[in-house]
Amino acid sequence: MKQRKVPLRKCVACQEMMPKKELIRIVKTPEDEVLIDLTGKKSGRGAYLCGKVSCFKLAQKNKSLDRALKHHVKPEIYEQLAEDFISVEDEFLAVKESSGDE
């Protein structure tokens, strides 16, 4: 059987290429909301980050999310994303480990 191509994406903070399922997608919706998209299916412009808090902080420091989303991300949105990122990180890592076992 022909093996399927694994879609690769680049983390906007550390610039490391990884399979799409190993990254967390941040999306700017058409309504100009910036939020975390674990499904990867929400409409809007997306940017990908590693599942590490250090990458999120680096993206915030370098404003790489602003560039990737082509939209100014306000400080209060970064604070909200930081809270969401920390709460989602454990869930994301659990899903990542379970899919790696298969």
From TrEMBL:
Residues 9-82 form the YlxR domain. It comes from the Bacteria. SUPFAM superfamilies: YlxR-like (SSF64376). Pfam families: YlxR. Gene3D superfamilies: YlxR-like. This is DUF448 domain-containing protein. It comes from Paenibacillus dendrobii.
